[in-house]
Amino acid sequence: MATPVQRINCPPFTDQRPGTSGLRKKVTRFAEPHYLAMFVQAIFDAVGDLKGATIALGGDGRYYNREASAIILRMAAAHGIAKVLVGKGGILSTPAASNLIRQRGLKGGIILSASHNPGGPDGDFGIKYNATNGGPAPESLTEAMFKLSQTLTGYDILDDSAGKIDLDRIGTQQLGGMSVEIVDPVADYADLMERLFDFDRMRNWLKGNRMLFDAMHAVTGPYAEEILAKRLGASAQSLLNFVPKTDFGNHHPDPNPAHAEELMARMWAADAPALGAASDGDGDRNMIVGAKLAISPSDSLAVLAANATLIPGYAKGIKGVARSMPTSRAADVVAAELGIESFETPTGWKFFGNLLDAGRVTLCGEESYGTGSDHVREKDGLWAVLFWLDLLAATGKSVPAIMDAHWRRFGRHYYSRHDYEAVDSDRANEIVNTLRQRLPDLQGRAGNGRRIELADDFRYQDPIDGSISEHQGVRLVFSDGGRLVLRLSGTGTEGATLRLYLERFEPKTGVLDLEPQVALADFINLAEELIGIKRVSGRAQPDVVT
Ligand code: G16
After folding, report:
1. Which residue among 19, 76, 281, 525 is least crowded, i.e. fewest CB within 10 A of its CB?
2. DSSP-H helix ranges across 58-186
3. DSSP-assigned letter for residue 285
């Protein structure tokens, strides 16, 4: 007898517009009756054509991951989906989910994560859909989800009598007419890493050198245990905070110097390991640290591009490089020297998808601690850590030595991001809109020995499908190569987050050893003079400086 499908009637929720990376809200909002289900209905309706399809499902293991997985499985069955591949325990890191979709030729997948945002009952939750290419849904699809979410009158879900799926039992189970295969979340991904990097070389390096990887009590714990400890032989002391917790141990699982405090302290100690690294809630971000030196994500992308041919997976060279607009222009300089294309896209990994699919770029990166390549369609935290590890093994150099050589060759883009979090939304909009209105006046303005050569609100035309994305952040580009960029975050869940990005270029012959905040002091003052974030918001300092 077929398990009955229930139609639950419900008015639409007006706040279901996906941001930079899917729908992110407080757990308390997601746990309200019907809230998650209504958005899942919007996803299924927007994607369409799901009858008989196979999709993936997994998340970063944060609070509400299991409850949400159960609801989504019952809805998937009600929509005639033939099969869902689910990571054991409802777990899949974001890059592993992307890989699973690609490797198994799936229609797409649902990823449950609020990435680097805090978790727990009072923390954040999120959901996003990734398409057949393994990448985040393009803007056209997320916009369709939002539109549908505003007109829905209810959703379809399998009746309770269908029973429950045991998320912890590897193998195939039935839910109504749908089969659910619980898979090992790590194995396929670890195999992919073995195909890209020289595991023998890294194993040897680890015999004589130490590394420290901070999983921040998030999803990469089991991935690091399998890859770094088991397959590469890193010592047990090499892994920090590697037991996943639903609230990330009450920490902010964001791999940056401000939130990975313990790692930073260890990397500044006299006996610091040669390589320090961290990844975020869902495993797509990374931070790389050498002894007493944190690598800015923008520099990391440039270094990987400049040295790619030393790594087996990229030995034939890279096709091109893409970076998000606020990311420093360090990678552009490398691309120009290598004679390959470079692209500047809006913030959001989804904007790299078309370039990767078209074979125009091999490496991509963002200032928000995201780096990746064409091996999946998400940024990939552990991949970046392995890339650096393999680079250290291939060159025999230290992280500071690699950076020093890089800056001497290509020049240095001093870079910093200042975040003002949970700002009153009206105030934040006022700051951005005022700057937008002043752009014509600022264009060409001179001062402090430099001139503003370009003052605009970034507009992107996708080189592959021609689609246009407007208002992607205000940028002021100076005659000496410096830049100030201002945009509103699309991932926050409380008020508005203003992000101010500061960049100053020092050509090869310049001073190479200034601390970024010191090197940028002049720009920090100029930004306040031109934009006035502190003046209008009333904040004395940014909340987070990276
Ligand atoms: C998401 C996107 C990234 C983006 C980041 C920051 O990351 O996938 O591409 O750079 O948000 O966005 P915002 O500056 O708008 O907060 P994640 O790791 O949160 O999925």
Report:
1. 525
2. 65-78, 94-103, 139-149
3. B
- Which pLDDT tens digit goes with each residue over 233-278? 999 999 999 999 999 999 999 999 989 999 999 999 999 999 999 9
Atom of ligand 1 minimally distant from the CA of 488: 15
Residue 66's pLDDT is 97
Which residues, 6 or more positions from 93, have their beta carbon under 8 angstroms from its beta carbon? 58, 60, 185, 189, 219, 220, 223, 282, 283, 284, 381, 382
Catalytic residue among 115, 149, 368, 373: 115
Q: Which amino acid is at 355?
A: L
The answer to whether 324 is a known catalytic residue is no
Shortest-distance Cα residue to atom 14 of ligand 1: 489
Q: Which residues contact 415 (CB under 8 A, 6 or more apart)?
A: 296, 298, 299, 328, 330, 367, 501, 502, 503, 504, 516, 520
CA dihedral 417, 502, 542, 458 (to 10 degrees): -80
What is the average per-residue pLDDT within 108-120? 96
List, in sequence order, every residue forming a beta bridge with 378; answer none if it has no partner: none
Pick the residue whose CA is nearest to atom 19 on ligand 1.
115
Q: How far apart are CA 116 and CA 2, in angstroms?
A: 41
Beta bridge partners of 126: 24
Average pLDDT, the chain: 95
- Please state, in angstroms and as integers, the Cα–Cα distance from residue 73 to each residue in 65, 68, 69, 378, following that order: 12, 9, 6, 23
The alpha carbon of 206 and the centre of ligand 1 are apart by a number of angstroms equal to: 32
Q: Specify the DSSP class assigned to residue 351.
A: G
What CA–CA distance (Å, rounded) separates 391 from 350?
A: 27
- Ligand 1 atom with the smallest distance to the CA of 351 is 9
Q: What's the pLDDT tens digit per position in 485-512? A: 999 998 777 889 999 999 999 987 555 5
Q: How many CA atoms lie within 13 A of 11 on its CB side?
A: 2
Q: Output the CA 491–ligand 1 centroid distance in Å.
A: 6
Crossing angle for the helix pair 297-307 and 381-395, nearest 10 degrees?
50
pLDDT in tens, 175-197: 999 999 999 999 999 999 999 99
Whole-prediction pTM: 0.94
**β-bridge pairing 460-461 and 468-469:** antiparallel
Half-sphere exposure of 13 (CA within 13 A, CB side): 21
Within 6 Å (CB) of ligand 1, which residues are found?
Answer: 20-21, 115-116, 284-285, 324, 347-349, 366, 368, 370, 489-491, 499
Using CA atoms, how far apart are residues 308 and 362, in angstroms rounded to an integer? 10
CB 22 within 8 A of CB 126: yes
